[in-house]
Design brief:
The complex is a heterodimer. Chain A is of the alpha/beta class. Chain A has one domain: P-loop containing nucleotide triphosphate hydrolases (Rossmann fold). In chain A, 39% of the residues lie in helices and 27% in strands. Chain A contains ten helices and ten strands. In chain A, helix 3 runs parallel beside helix 6. The longest helix of chain A has 16 residues. Chain A is globular and about 45 Å long. In chain A, 44% of the residues are buried. Chain B is mainly α. Chain B has one domain. In chain B, 72% of the residues lie in helices and 4% in strands. Chain B is built from eleven helices and four strands, in the order ααααβββααααβααα. A two-stranded antiparallel sheet of chain B has the order 1-4. A two-stranded antiparallel sheet of chain B has the order 2-3. In chain B, strand 2 and strand 3 form a beta hairpin. Chain B is globular, with a radius of gyration of 19 Å. Classes of the chains: A alpha/beta, B mainly alpha. At the A-B interface, helix 2, helix 3 and helix 6 of A face helix 6 and helix 7 of B. The complex binds adenosine-5'-triphosphate and magnesium ion. Adenosine-5'-triphosphate binds next to strand 2 and helix 1 of chain A. Magnesium ion binds next to helix 1 of chain A.
């Protein structure tokens, strides 16, 4: 579904992404793990078109989207839940969700997806008239994910959805991610919580200072000694 | 007491003008964090377009108002596209200096075409010259017209911003441009649309001030522009209801100072308010200290 080939990204003179290639097949959960500053966020931002790349190609279902606008990528089915959630804090929960469907015109289908999101995140239904900034951290994460689902994505990119959440909630978020995937959405998941991410992922890439150093199935990487030492605490 | 109420009425009329201009400042600031110094000049151009519609083309008030607003929309969008858009990633000071340049360009460009002389709006006719009395308070039809048109425009603006798709996009872009892009919102179109709204309101204010004070000149935008800016800061820059409240407050204050004190001081008092606000509550009346959850 998504194919990143030989991607290079710079911030001025900083060479942040150094020729990485990543492939996400339809129906998979693929996770990208790595330490702070490895370049995970930058990779996702390049996929959704927020960051310009220096060289390389990105294709979605065989179509070259390397130079497409962020808007076109949303249209083509990429949805990105950014690091830090980035909800529209002074707008209501409902308005946030409506903005997720900004490019869609099929009113009745949007209404269906809205009730689907409310079903998945009942707390959002209770809070729909409330300003999004008044939600708790976990609720904001749910809102960010619900908002991303409102575009009916084929590929959902998630950047550290578990960041700053209590363990119980982390578990809940990961269950939801797995469920979204089972309902047919392909997922590219960036995480620092490597053990959780590897548990639900079909395949994983390990990133270090802008390069992919290791790749394999989730189960394989969980058994890897290097990974255990570096990311799983022993 | 009658005098007090009379001053309030006058203050509300003048405040309407300031509020209309302040809205443009505040919306543009909200979306691109730019103090658009050329905004007062768009208002001036609106006054001239209204003037020519009424004098050279003998049009009525409403068609003139409409044409002036339309022309200002084109001007405002052109300013944005030509002067500000290429500087989207430039430093703020560079954009600010550009805005001052655009302002001077419009002022002296207009002077080139229409000469520097003060011109008088045509005398009003018919219903518009009437006035009526409530006790000793006089309310003119002009004042009613100014306040009426302003209220209609504000209600329309609130509707657009709160209820329509493009209005939601505007709010989203002013809150977080990148997150807005991730929704598929076209940020550039949305910014242009903000200039459309702001410039239309400024154009309306120009025509209204023409019929209220009668005289217009190419530099007439400077002072009201600055005062409307103070009004926007007073209400909380970037906040739409803040600009409305600020406009009425500054208008009323100015009229009160002229009425009870000394009209020599009325400008000084307005700018004293600016200084006071910046010291006491820089985020303005409705501004909040933004806190973010992690
Ligand atoms: N806007 C920017 N300007 C300059 N350098 C940047 C910018 N954004 C990221 N970088 C640099 O690019 C590199 C990769 O950053 P990135 O945010 O992608 O890391 P990450 O893997 O997401 O880290 P984290 O786990 O902390 O979120 C870092 O060295 C970072 O300093
Ligand atoms: Mg990151």
């Amino acid at each position: 579904m998504l194919e990143i080939t030989d991607l290079n990204v710079h911030f001025g003179v900083i060479h942040a992404i150094k020729g990485i290639s990543i492939k996400v097949n339809e129906g998979e959960i693929v996770t990208l793990i790595g330490a702070n500053g490895a370049g995970k966020t930058t990779t996702l931002r390049t996929v959704s078109g927020l960051k310009k790349l220096s060289s390389g190609t990105i294709t979605l279902n065989g179509m070259d989207i390397t130079h497409s606008s962020a808007q076109d990528r949303v249209k083509m089915g990429i949805s990105h839940v950014p690091e830090g959630r980035r909800i529209f804090s002074t707008m209501t929960v409902l308005e946030n969700l409506e903005l997720g469907a900004y490019l869609r015109r099929d009113k009745s289908e949007i209404a269906k997806d809205l009730s689907m999101v409310y079903e998945r995140f009942p707390i959002l239904a209770d809070r729909k008239k409330q300003a999004a900034g008044t939600l708790s951290g976990g609720e904001q994460q749910m809102l960010a994910m619900g908002r991303a689902l409102m575009s009916r994505p084929k590929l959902l990119c998630l950047d550290e959805p578990s960041m700053g959440l209590a363990p119980l909630l982390v578990q809940e978020i990961f269950d939801i991610i797995r469920d979204i995937n089972e309902k047919g959405t392909t997922i590219l998941l960036v995480e620092q919580n490597a053990s959780m991410a590897l548990q639900i992922a079909n395949r994983a890439y390990v990133m270090e200072t802008g390069s992919i150093t290791l790749t394999g199935t989730g189960a394989e990487l969980m058994q890897s000694d290097d990974i255990k030492k570096a990311y799983l605490g022993g | 007491m009658e005098q007090f109420f009379q001053q309030i009425i006058n203050g509300i009329s003048l405040g309407s003008i300031y509020a209309l201009i302040a809205l443009g400042y505040t919306m543009v600031y909200g979306i691109i964090k730019l103090i658009n110094f050329a905004h007062g000049d768009v208002y001036m151009v609106g006054a001239y377009i209204g003037y020519f519609c009424m004098t050279s083309f003998h049009m009525g008030f409403l068609p003139s108002l409409f044409i002036a607003m339309t022309f200002c929309v084109i001007l405002g969008v052109a300013i944005e596209k030509i002067a500000y858009k290429p500087l989207r990633n430039a430093t703020r000071i560079a954009v600010l200096i550009t805005a001052i340049g655009v302002s001077l360009f419009i002022e002296y460009g207009t002077m080139f075409f229409v000469k520097a002389d003060v011109r008088s709006y045509p005398p009003l006719t018919g219903l518009l010259v009437k006035s009526f009395k409530l006790g000793d308070i006089v309310i003119t039809m002009q004042q009613l017209l100014i306040v009426g048109i302003t209220v209609i425009l504000m209600v329309l603006l609130q509707f657009i911003v709160k209820r329509t798709r493009i209005g939601k996009a505007m709010r989203a872009v002013s809150l977080d441009k990148e997150a807005a892009e991730l929704m598929g919102i076209n940020v550039n179109t949305t910014i242009s649309f903000t200039f459309v709204l702001g410039s239309a309101l400024a154009g309306a204010a120009g025509v209204l001030v023409g019929i209220y004070y009668n005289s217009i000149n190419p530099l007439m935008g400077i002072m009201p522009g600055l005062k409307a800016f103070v009004a926007a800061v007073f209400g909380g820059i970037g906040i739409i209801p803040g600009a409305m409240i600020g406009g009425y407050f500054i208008g009323t204050l100015e009229v009160m100072v002229s009425g009870y004190g000394n009209s020599m001081f009325r400008d000084a008092v307005v700018f004293a308010v600016l200084i006071l606000i910046l010291i006491v509550k820089p985020s303005g009346l409705l501004g909040k200290e933004t806190r973010e959850k992690v």
